[in-house]
Write a structure and sequence with these properties.
CATH class of the largest domain: Alpha Beta
Structural class: alpha/beta
Distance between the termini: 63 Å
Number of domains: 3
Radius of gyration: 24 Å
CATH topology of the largest domain: D-Maltodextrin-Binding Protein, domain 2
CATH superfamily of the largest domain: Periplasmic binding protein-like II
CATH architecture of the largest domain: 3-Layer(aba) Sandwich
Strand content: 15-25%
Number of helices: 12
Largest sheet: 7 strands, mixed
Length: about 300
């Protein structure tokens, strides 16, 4: 047997993605480069690892066994690398986070200094919806989760990072047609919502119900970025987090519509299971946040704190 660690890594990506093309994209390699390495690995075995049926790639049962073995081998190699770094008194290991979709505008700023300082730390950050973030905590798949609403079914600890402020926002394209009475917006224009289960949607629906506001028409979008683009395009108005609107505000693509009771305010909290034994990397990250959090907010979120 003469296969390399790189070949095993490529094969593992191919099995996970069920596609040479997608594996190449994930690895930042060309499709031919992945195909060549896959072929060289296959030459080491008398039994097919993959097969093509109807132009679709399938991993054989034997290939699945090899993939499991490859995963163990690569994990052991990774552990050796981490141990070497620790022996040199370097913080080393993986930091796993799950982040509610709007949190992608927040979390990177609290991570960058820590990751750049600790070269032995590998980051895995999943940006997804609230339900899946909570599930990842429940199943102990991550060290931390970033949420604006603390899960009530899990005993957690948390550190507050930043305010989450939701305003009524509309496109400047609609400015000349905007009703003089703001409440008319709710009567005459579509309201744009996130998908069911989203913390942003829950906050928006609770506010509308509490104020007994009329709703002319609802539209649902399944990501904050899609919602933002729909608002910019003038598709309707929305009550949404300000944190992702910096460029749109600076470019005068959107405007904040003053309305009684807004902004709604919660907080972005980094949470973790109360009973979880945190790794040295996770504890190191918490120590970093305690020391640097205020400076990060001052340096990177000064514009946001002004609203």
């Amino acid at each position: 047997m003469n296969y390399t660690l790189n070949q095993l890594k490529i094969f593992l990506y191919v099995t996970e993605k069920q596609s040479v093309t997608k594996a190449a994209e994930e690895l930042f390699l060309t499709q031919p480069a992945v195909s060549i390495q896959l072929k060289k690995l296959q030459e080491q075995f008398p039994i097919p690892l993959t097969e093509i049926v109807g132009r679709r790639l399938y991993v054989t049962d034997f290939g699945k066994e090899i993939a499991l073995a490859a995963e163990k081998i690569l994990s052991e190699v990774e552990a050796i690398n981490y141990q070497t770094m620790r022996y040199k008194n370097m913080l080393a290991g993986r930091l796993r986070l799950s982040v509610a979709s709007t949190g992608k505008y927040v979390m990177p700023y609290f991570l960058s200094g820590f990751i750049n300082k600790n070269k032995g730390v590998d980051l895995i950050m999943d940006v997804t919806n609230k339900a899946l973030v909570v599930k990842s905590l429940e199943e102990n798949k991550v060290d931390f989760a970033l949420v604006s609403v603390i899960p009530d079914k899990i005993k957690t600890k948390q550190i507050t990072l930043l305010k989450n402020k939701l305003y009524l926002i509309g496109s400047t394209r609609l400015k000349n047609r905007k009703p003089k009475k703001t409440i008319k917006i709710f009567e005459e224009y579509p309201l744009l919502f996130r998908e069911a289960g989203s913390a942003t949607r829950n906050a928006m629906e609770e506010f509308i119900a509490e104020k007994k506001l009329p709703v002319y028409k609802k539209m649902e979008l399944t990501s904050n970025e899609a919602l933002k683009q729909a608002v910019i395009a003038g598709l309707g108005y929305s009550i949404m987090p300000l944190i992702g609107m910096r460029d749109a505000l600076n470019n005068k693509e959107v405007e904040i519509i003053p309305f009684k009771g807004l902004p709604l305010e919660t907080h972005w909290n980094l949470v973790w299971n109360k009973s979880k034994n945190l790794s040295p990397v996770a504890n190191g990250f918490l120590e970093y946040l305690e020391l640097e959090k205020d400076q990060i907010i001052a340096d990177d979120f000064g514009w946001y704190e002004q609203y």
